[in-house]
Design goal:
- Helices cover 46% and strands 7% of the residues.
- It contains twelve helices and five strands.
- By secondary structure, the protein is of the alpha/beta class.
Length: 304
């Protein structure tokens, strides 16, 4: 009787130990899953999610430094004296109060020390990459680009830069810019309507004499000729400029920090007041001021 009772007691104790071990293992197993980040939900109100960062604006309307690249227009060629650069009246970086350049409008008194002009008279799209490389030394926050007129202004229409080459050269310049200035913004102006400049400038006898020195011969040669051959030549230049402007828009649109003027410079109706009194083709001081206005509106617009 006593031995049977002892055996029953030991049996019950053994079963109890097995149950206790199983429960303990189960509890430890659950605790282990939570400890290693298992799928079990945490306690309510104990989350530590970080707030989403505010998105960085794609375009800053108030850059603090500017570098200009391009051709004779950005150098203020023939705006002050005949056949000479006059960068003080440049639409992009000039200090002239008559022009109120983009740099002055954006930077105020800092414009003199925080803007640089690397444009060159006679430059073509093929020269842009080199200009960008030189400008990058200053690490500008905004780079302005106005180039392409000289690619159309050649001795003949056959000598104009092919559109495919123009595109490849602009793409190369943009790649160079992004390698050296990954955070810089780029503002690209359209190429002026060269045929309109011819139609306005040809009214001045002095201007036509200066044109004979070799200013944009593909458009301006034989200024008074209006026969079918001359008309075809000028229209060929006009169409090439249109194609260049399309390239500028397309390539710029692929870069989130690039903005164009939306064709505003090309569409601007330049009159004789906006043309140089020496060559009746390049912008005068008044014309440079109009370019500065167009650029400022485009750069400071909340949306392009």
């Amino acid at each position: 009787m006593g031995q049977g009772t002892d055996r029953e007691t030991r049996s019950r104790l053994g079963r109890s130990r097995v149950v206790l071990a199983a429960v303990t293992a189960a509890v430890l197993g659950v605790a282990g899953c939570d400890a290693v980040g298992g799928d079990s939900p945490g306690a309510s109100g104990t989350g530590s999610a970080r707030p989403s960062p505010k998105p960085t604006p794609a375009w800053d309307t108030s850059p603090e430094s500017i570098a200009a690249v391009g051709d004779s227009i950005t150098r203020g060629f023939d705006a002050c004296t005949i056949l000479s650069d006059c960068p003080d009246v440049s639409w992009a970086t000039g200090g002239s109060a008559e022009v109120d350049s983009l740099a002055v409008r954006l930077l105020g008194t800092k414009a003199a020390s925080r803007s640089w002009n690397y444009a060159a008279t006679g430059a073509r799209m093929a020269d842009l990459s080199g200009q960008v490389t030189r400008a990058a030394v200053h690490e500008p926050e905004l780079v302005t680009v106005m180039t392409g007129a000289n690619d159309a202004c050649r001795t003949t229409t056959d000598a104009m830069t092919p559109v495919a080459d123009f595109r490849a050269q602009f793409e190369d310049a943009m790649r160079t810019l992004r390698r050296k200035l990954p955070k810089a913004q780029v503002f690209v102006t359209s190429i002026p309507d060269l045929k309109r400049l011819w139609s306005e400038g040809r009214t001045n006898p002095l201007g036509k004499q200066v044109w004979k020195l070799g200013i944009c011969p593909s458009m301006l040669a034989d200024a008074d000729a209006v026969d079918s051959a001359a008309t075809l030549r000028r229209n060929t230049v006009r169409d090439r400029v249109d194609a260049y402007n399309e390239v500028l828009r397309d390539v710029c649109a692929k870069d989130r920090k690039c903005r164009t003027d939306g064709g505003a410079v090309h569409a601007f109706r330049f009159g004789t007041d906006q043309l140089s009194q020496w060559d009746w083709f390049h912008p005068s001081v008044n014309g440079q001021a109009r370019l500065a206005e167009i650029a400022y509106r485009a750069v400071t617009a909340k949306k392009p």
